[in-house]
Design a protein that fits this description.
Layout: E1 9-13, H1 19-28, H2 44-56, E2 61-67, E3 75-83, H3 86-104, H4 116-126, H5 133-138, E4 142-147, H6 156-170, E5 175-180, H7 185-193, E6 197-199, E7 205-210
Parallel strand pairs: 4-5
Antiparallel strand pairs: 1-2, 2-3, 3-4, 5-7, 6-7
GO molecular function, one term: beta-N-acetylglucosaminidase activity
Pfam families: Acetyltransf_1
Protein name: N-acetyltransferase domain-containing protein
Length: 219
């Protein structure tokens, strides 16, 4: 590798033009951090549920991790998407995002070739996740974060979260939360290691970060 072709990773604000790249990353990490490509006949469902509502609706914000080699096209390697107000975002998605998806992807019956994983996402579109009230009372803001394997374990997840912390602090907030797949043991270990605290809930794992516990990665 020549000096000019070395990776130059950086973080920038997410835009609507990033939707295809973020949808691809979502699919490649959707199986407890591993690829779910073989598990979906309709991978675009993930885009409709987990990506577009965080780039098209308000209130939301996001950041992407990009590789910009000197001689090549920018490549997106990871992202963080967020809302400062989970309840407002749930209401906006219910009004704007889910109705057309429910028509296109019915659940009674499901599309004939839908896989079990497709059906699970379709069910979530027809019956969206409502975060626990006690959790939202503690922290109105939540994030989603995914990194491709080549960008993991290099400090970029922490740097993406730091961008979210700075954004939310500027809005007067003092915490955020994230939900994980209970089978994603690496994600659990990561959040616990960097200062998140578990929020007990029967059927989903949540972790809360209080900003007073956050250590600036630049120090």
């Amino acid at each position: 590798m020549t000096e000019s072709s070395k990776k130059q990773l950086s973080i920038r604000t997410a835009t609507l033009e990033d939707v295809p790249d973020l949808a691809r990353i979502c699919l490649l990490t959707a199986n407890a951090g591993q690829s779910a490509e073989s598990m979906h006949q309709y991978p675009e469902l993930l885009q409709g549920l987990y990506i577009e509502p965080y780039l098209k609706l308000t209130p939301t914000f996001g950041f992407v991790l990009v590789d910009t080699p000197d001689e090549g096209r920018e490549a997106v390697l990871g992202y963080l998407l967020a809302t400062p107000d989970s309840r407002r975002h749930e209401a906006a998605a219910e009004q704007e995002s889910y109705p057309p998806l429910r028509i296109k992807y019915p659940n009674n019956p499901y599309p004939s070739d839908a896989t079990e994983r497709d059906q699970g996402v379709i069910n979530r579109i027809h019956k969206p996740l409502i975060r626990p009230q006690g959790l939202v009372d503690m922290s109105p803001a939540h994030i989603h974060i995914n990194l491709l394997p080549q960008a993991q374990r290099k400090g970029w997840g922490v740097k993406l979260i730091d961008e979210a912390v700075k954004t939310l602090k500027a809005e007067g907030q003092s915490s955020l939360f994230v939900g994980i797949d209970s089978k994603n043991h690496n994600a659990r270990a990561f959040y616990l290691r960097i200062g998140f605290k578990p929020f007990p809930f029967p059927d989903k794992e949540y972790f809360v970060l209080h900003f007073q516990d956050w250590k600036d990665p630049r120090t």
